[in-house]
Amino acid sequence: DWDRFKGKEVTxxxxxxxxxxxxxxxxxxQGIRGDEISIEIEGKGKVSFPIDDVVxxxxxxxxxxxxxxxE
Length: 71
Hints:
single chain; mainly beta; 5 strands; 48% strand
């Protein structure tokens, strides 16, 4: 299902740290190539890591700020 969610915001927990980003990677899923997952991290660029290193993966849901109008 990795390709199905390409372009969606995700968070992945990995067994090993991914560069200086640690074990929790959050960003936009760019896709999968071979056995590597690519995620674009806002302001930090793209990172890739082995799919076998993923412990958990989830789509992110962000609440939209809904300001209430008081009369």
